[in-house]
Design a protein that fits this description.
This protein has 158 residues and is an alpha+beta fold. The longest helix has 23 residues.
């Protein structure tokens, strides 16, 4: 199984590492981790048995969560790189929040296989990024999505 060595979420400051989807400090969370694979972003995630919709298939809400956190993580990766940094470099990355999330379920997503979210990032404004995401189970696209992510407003910060 593929592995993300340096995920952007690993570098989020502790006060912003509690997201249910991608927060490393949320014990009950998914711990979604997003990194670079050349010019695309990648997240590898293996759904647990409790993420079932019906026997043998993954719950659609988990897929939406995967696309959401992959999208905001991808935007953070893109701006971090634009600022001259990479995950693991010791520089605090920017944080993003979701402005818009669209999900299309293409095929039922089988349970018991790792899912791979692949993102293509486009800057549409200095503080706003659009991320197109495809979610694969093995070589089959099961879902697609679009995340519009904006730089976290100062009002969210302590």
């Amino acid at each position: 199984m593929e592995h993300i060595t340096h995920a952007i979420q690993d570098d989020y400051p502790d006060e912003f590492a509690h997201c249910f989807g991608c927060g490393r400090l949320n014990e009950a969370g998914h711990h979604i981790r997003t990194g670079w694979q050349e010019t695309e972003t990648v997240t590898i995630y293996e759904p647990k048995k409790e993420h079932m919709a019906i026997p043998g298939f993954v719950y659609g809400g988990l897929i939406a969560s995967l696309i959401d956190c992959h999208g905001t993580g991808s935007a953070a990766l893109a701006l971090h790189r634009k600022n001259g940094h990479e995950p693991g470099s010791g520089h605090e990355p920017p944080r993003f929040v979701t402005a818009s999330l669209q999900v299309q379920y293409v095929k039922p997503t089988p349970q018991g296989v790792p899912l791979k979210a692949v993102g293509k990032v486009e800057e549409i404004h200095p503080k706003k990024y659009k991320v197109d995401v495809e979610v694969f189970a093995k070589d089959t696209v099961c879902a697609t999505g679009e995340v519009v992510a904006v730089v976290m407003p100062d009002t969210f910060k302590k």
